[in-house]
Specification:
Layout lengths: L15 H5 L7 E7 L6 E7 L2 E8 L7 H16 L17 E3 L2 E7 L13 H21 L16 H17 L5 H20 L10 E4 L8 E4 L2 E5 L6 E4 H12 L9 H15 L3 H16 L3 H8 L9 H13 L1 H9 L1
Antiparallel strand pairs: 1-2, 2-3, 3-5, 4-5, 6-9, 7-8
Length: 343
């Protein structure tokens, strides 16, 4: 995630009466917010007829009803291929998007499960995770229309000159922040460190990305539910879109398998990546190029600090120490990381 968006205010509670009248789901008994996630709002809903997950689509970039319907259609088709997903329930008229008071909602079956970080997975389970993402990419290629030639064209990689200017701006914000605190000290140290790395590696800016295809768009531990050792459901398809597929595989691994110290668990990455390549039909060369682009993306990305200093939003602060350390470690261990994804 590198874009910075200000989200609209969120209602305290969904309009349950108006919503449930559209479904054969009974009357509400309890409705509790689900706290996990940075951008989405969801509710654990119990009614007289069962348990459900009620999703409020409020992110301006993904709340278009037509885009939500496309996501719903994709998950229904993937379910038909055996991919573990939780497609939305249709209302009495067969629609899966309910617009009430100008807000879009969808009702899903409740899936019992828990989230598991990569460090909690055995090597075999890491391979299963890679195979799962490979099945998602291969399945989307089957069930979604072929991307138009210009659809999802890979974006230009970050310009280091722009990033250096942003570093100077953020350093100014850190310096002016009062009262100064330990987060400011860490931010300043990492910004100065990153400036040195960018100056050292400025000549390694990658070209545009590789082959694009339909991807989940946000594949990380909070969006995979496990029942025991088995993935029970991939959730949160808001960012379904056309992007370089191998880059999603690398980006996901950098979240699943990062240690608190800011290093990657390379043996687990290797098990995951081998299974992903088999499942998606990706080549080692495609993964190598994706590793380079994601490394460069991380080297130039400061979304967590922008949230903290520009929006006074601290929800991502806990992720910053490991994420910032990972960039430094990855730059030093670049060849070993590439080998883990391609070997």
């Amino acid at each position: 995630m590198s874009s910075l968006r200000v989200l609209p205010p969120v209602p305290c509670a969904p309009p349950l009466g108006a919503l449930l009248r559209r479904y054969a789901a009974g009357s509400a008994v309890t409705c509790e917010p689900v706290d996990e996630g940075l951008l989405n709002r969801g509710y654990r809903l119990r009614t007289t007829r069962g348990r459900y997950f009620l999703k409020h689509h409020f992110d301006p970039e993904t709340a278009d009803p037509a885009a939500i319907v496309r996501q719903h259609r994709a998950t229904r088709r993937l379910a038909g291929l055996g991919v573990p997903v939780a497609p939305p329930l249709p209302d009495r008229d067969g629609r899966t998007v309910a617009v009430v008071g100008g807000h879009a909602y969808a009702l899903h079956p409740w899936v019992d499960g828990r989230h598991r970080h990569g460090g909690q997975l055995t090597p075999g389970q890491c391979a299963r995770l890679g195979a799962l993402l490979g099945a998602v990419h291969a399945g989307l290629e089957r069930v979604m229309p072929a991307p138009a030639r210009t659809h999802g064209a890979p974006a230009e990689s970050a310009d280091p000159a722009d990033t250096l200017a942003l570093i100077d701006e953020l350093l100014g914000r850190v310096r002016r922040h009062r009262p100064a605190d330990p987060f400011d000290a860490l931010a300043r140290r990492r910004l100065l460190e990153r400036r040195t790395l960018l100056e050292r590696h400025a000549g390694r800016r990658p070209p545009r990305g590789g082959a694009v295809g339909w991807v989940h768009g946000d594949f990380h531990p909070f969006n995979v539910l496990y029942r025991g050792s088995t993935p029970a459901a991939i959730v949160d398809w808001d960012r379904l879109g056309v992007q370089p597929r191998a880059e999603e595989a690398v980006r996901a691994a950098a979240i699943f398998f990062v240690r608190p110290s800011g290093t990657l668990d390379l043996p687990r990455v290797r098990s995951y990546a081998r299974a992903y390549r088999r499942g998606a039909g990706a080549t080692p060369a495609q993964l190598a190029a994706a590793v380079h682009r994601v490394w460069w993306e991380r080297l130039n990305d400061f979304w967590m600090l922008r949230w903290h200093y520009e929006r006074d939003d601290t929800r991502a602060d806990s992720q910053f120490p490991a994420t910032a350390a990972l960039v430094v470690w990855w730059s030093r261990e670049y060849d070993a990381v590439r080998a883990a994804f391609t070997g």
